[in-house]
Amino acid sequence: MTSQPQPTNAPPADFGRRVHGTIMGGALGDTLGYLVEFDSLADIQAKYGAAGLVDLSQETPPLHFSDDTQMTLYTLDGLLEVLEWANDGVGADINACQWLAYLRWLKTQGIQATGPAPEPQPRWIDTQSVLHHRRHPGNACITGLSGGEMGTVHRPVNPDSKGCGTVMRSAPYGLIPNIPAETVYKISSEAASLTHGHPSARQSSGAFSWLIHMLAVAGLGLREAAASAGVRAHAEPGADPELLSRLDAALALSAPDVLAAHDGVPLSGVQLTDALGLGWVAEEALAVALYAVLATAPGAVSPPEHFLAAVRLAVNHDGDSDSTGHIAGNILGAFYGEEALPLAWLKLCEDPQLIQHLAGQLVKLTVGA
């Protein structure tokens, strides 16, 4: 492992474009993957051809994003509430605001939390009808919230759950500028405990948010930021060995010399999931998405071409295609900004104005642009 780069507090000049790219890129990757989330690779190829699902135009509109984008937007809205309080000179408990945001998301799924859970005050996002649809939410997210107890690191709900419902919703934490990267990691990993208690779920979320922060705020390159996230994962006391193994494998298998030895052809399909997992659990979803981004970088001729190649690789397999596509889209958007987003896909995205509005609010509240 390389030495850890020092986190950068001040965001780059194109920070706003990176925020928009991160959130919208995730939604686009999610939309492609959601079309085949529960299909085997054989079924995908039987329906779309040997190359698999490669473009949103292969399906008839309207197309939909999944619970991954829904929960990412509620993560973002929870942070917006914290920032609104802060800008008014009032401190707010970040994790409590995240819990209340997720309880509001739970209500959009037609479920009311029981027990001691408070009744959250409604916010603008709750009026958006496009979010009031059940898009196959993860069981741990539902049960972790519906019981009414606020999970914490030391008193987690679903203590054995390490599903990818933590990592897939955690990109917004990495988009907070002017705070140390360690704070980003802490916020993200603690918020994961609201629904999932396994160390890998928390640590995968923290590592992913760290990665996004290193790209969108610190301005590191893709491989440098990925290596930094790996170093941070290894530094965690009680680091989960499965997370470390998956991250190390994603970095090693995507190394330029390894790719060159295979004529630049990345692992795909069954080879990809055999090496890194199916993506249903947190560390596997992060590893598959990260590999897809890194392994397609050498052959990319433009940001949109890299986006397309990486997301296609990330979703065409037997596993959790919407989450791996979503995370890959987040990473590429954080690195390239809006420049990575394919224009034809933006025209097919579900309610892009909603996504753009919430991303714009984060930019406004953090850097004033």
How confident overall, as mean pLDDT? Answer: 96
Strand content: under 5%
Give the full name of the CATH homologous superfamily.
ADP-ribosylation/Crystallin J1
What percent of the residues sit in helical stretches (DSSP H or I)?
55-70%
- In angstroms, what separates the terminal alpha carbons? 37 Å
Q: What is the overall silhouette? A: globular
What's the tally of helices?
A: 16
Q: Any idea what the CATH architecture is?
A: Orthogonal Bundle
> What is Rg?
19 Å
CATH class placement: Mainly Alpha
Oligomer class: single chain
Low-confidence stretches: none
| Tally of structural domains | 1
Report on this model:
The mean pLDDT is 96. 56% of the residues lie in helices and 0% in strands. The chain has a single domain, classed as ADP-ribosylglycohydrolase fold (Orthogonal Bundle), CATH 1.10.4080.10. α3 (67-87) packs across α4 (94-108) and α13 packs antiparallel against α14. The longest helix is centred in the N-terminal third of the chain and has 21 residues, at 67-87. It has 369 residues and is mainly alpha-helical. The chain has helices spanning 15-34, 41-48, 67-87, 94-108, 139-146, 181-192, 199-216, 222-235, 241-253, 256-261, 269-276, 282-295, 303-315, 321-336, 343-346, 352-367. It is globular and about 55 Å long.
